[in-house]
Amino acid sequence: MKPFQQLLLAPVALGLLAPLAASAGEISPSQRAEISTYMDQQNIDSFKAWEAQNQVTSVNQFSDVKPTDWAFQALSNLIERYGCVAGYPNGTFKGGQAMTRYEAAALLNACLDRITEVTDELKRLMDEFEKELAVLRGRVDGLEAKVGELEATQFSTTTKLQGDAVFVIGSNSFGGNQGLPNPAVGVPAGAANAFPANNRRNWGATVFNYDLRLNFLTSFTGKDLLYTRLRSGNFNNSPFGGQPYNLMALDRAFSPAGGADVVNIDRLYYRFPIGRDFTALIGARARNTEFLAITPWFYKSELLDVFSLHGAPGTYNKATGATFGLMWKQNVKKGKPYFAISTAYVAPRGDNGNPNQGGLLGERSRGTWTTQAGVAGKQWRFAFAWSYVQCGQNFRRGTSFAQPAVDCPNITNNFLGSENFGTSASYSNNFATTFAWQPKKSGWIPSINLGWGYNAMTQPELNPQTATLRVGRSSVRVPTFATVPTFNQSANRGASQSWSVGLQWSDVFIKGNQAGMAVGQPVFATSLRNGETPQDGNFAWEWWYKFQVTDNISVTPALFYLSRPNGQFTTAGQSSSVLGGLIQTQFKF
User: Fold this and answer.
1) Is residue 203 exposed (0-12), middle (13-18) or buried (19+ Cβ within 10 Å)?
2) Cys-Cys crosslink for 426: which of 27, 382, 406, 582, Cβ 3.0 to 4.6 Å?
3) Any coiled-coil ranges, and where (predicted)?
């Protein structure tokens, strides 16, 4: 330390430490003799010599300092970080003894010297790396400017924006030998006229469509999610929007309410945790298949919509509307198998205040209550699901005969004893079981995905006929008998089934590229209420290869085939099929 620094610091240090020090008169003759051997009161450099002679490198060198002492940690830090604590020549610290002004001066001087040495070393390093520090300082200033610009222009500190756009270019070939409309009784006009020649006239052109999504992901706690999706598209008049057969619809084929190119609010819900194992969802517009405890399949083509429904379109029917849901997942270590259960109620007409047309938990809500339970591991998944589906909500994807919703009878026709005669709204109980497996590593072995569904339709009284009876002065109508439906009537359906198998390969030829194939029978009638044998069989296939051009752009050429999409509405003994080809390009941002 420079003489001038000593001159300034010594009086200040002695003055600050005066209350802690003992006066010279309080030092015993033996202590005074000991101090005088290494300290000259008029020369602070003598303190340095004494400090250097008795400096320690570890608090354990003091024989009278124990880990239980209240100042043990403080002494340890001073010694190890600054090396400025000295003891007495006999190896003791004498922590319980009063400190003299000389001892205080020596201790403070040693610590100040160490700090000065560190400061000088830092200054030397700063001079040596002056150019590098200047570059880093410039970069930091640039980053600060960019951060400031982003903060000034961002619309929210809690919301992230994600989006993707899908382009579809494709056409369809309609084959088969059905040459005229189906003349059978009970066939709807649209299905009767869906024969090959008519389909080619109305839907045979090559089309170019798009589907655009903008997703706003908002979190207030880091664990919750307020999800808002804006969506638009122009599939309203496209065959890939599900015309003339619903089975032709693609998974990414949005037809906005209000017409093509109109922007709709497609999703709006809030999802949040309850404790460690439960998650709840509430929303004005949510979907049952987006709140499942276990995603049933690994297969994901995003092409034909029917193959996004895990082999059970009736159960996983993508019901969308006002939603309430609760989910439980077993808390296990990452990668370990777990059990999970979820349940969700969706009312597509939950916004309608007329109880004869909608509302929540009403007979006209078109509601779907889906409950799923299953177990999943890193490479496999098994799940069972049940959906209670009210009248008016269709079976999502199936033959033209099997896909429409169960009819809703006239609930204002209140017969005498209606509880017994069953004039309440119709419904279906739909069941699904799925299993999926995928290999540990990509290669020639694909993921294997299996799904099966069964749908039981219930209409307590089928087309009841009534008679008017006089009861006192009043007239009431009572059911007399039910009519037997014709072969092709919607009300004739008693039960239906479905199944699918999906295979998907990863890193095919080039890392990141994928290929897949799926086959199955979408919903088809297996039981008729009039006792006849249904003629509703149909098969669906799709084949595709996905080129991952960049992390954000992919191109997927695909083919699909529908053997008999009109099902039972096809003229008996004749055929009507579809072969479709398309190129789907996706941009993610």
Assistant:
1) buried
2) 406
3) 108-153
CB 536 within 8 A of CB 525: yes
pTM for this predicted structure: 0.73
Cα(217)–Cα(158) distance, integer angstroms: 8
Cβ atoms 373, 424 nearer than 8 A: no
Over its C-alpha atoms, the chain yields an Rg (Å, rounded) of: 40
**HSE (CB half, 13 Å, CA atoms) of 531?**
1
According to DSSP, the β-strands at 577-588 and 553-562 are antiparallel
Question: Residue 430's CB: how many other CB atoms inside 10 A?
Answer: 27
CA distance 388 to 397: 17
Q: Where are the beta strands (DSSP E) in 493-576?
A: 493-506, 514-528, 540-548, 553-562
Cα 542 to Cα 564: distance, rounded to the nearest angstrom: 15
Residue 427 has a CB neighbour count (10 Å cut-off) of 21
Q: In angstroms, rounded to a whole number, what is the distance separating the alpha carbons of residues 527 and 494?
A: 5
From 522, 557, 524, 526, select the one nearest 541 (Cα to Cα).
Answer: 522
Which residue type does 454 have?
Y
CA gap 515, 261 in Å, rounded: 31
Q: 183 preceded by cis ω (within 30°)? A: no
Tokens linked to 103: 């001892």
Q: Is 562 left (phi over 0), alpha (psi -120 to 50) or beta?
A: beta
Cα–Cα distance between 166 and 589 in angstroms, integer?
12
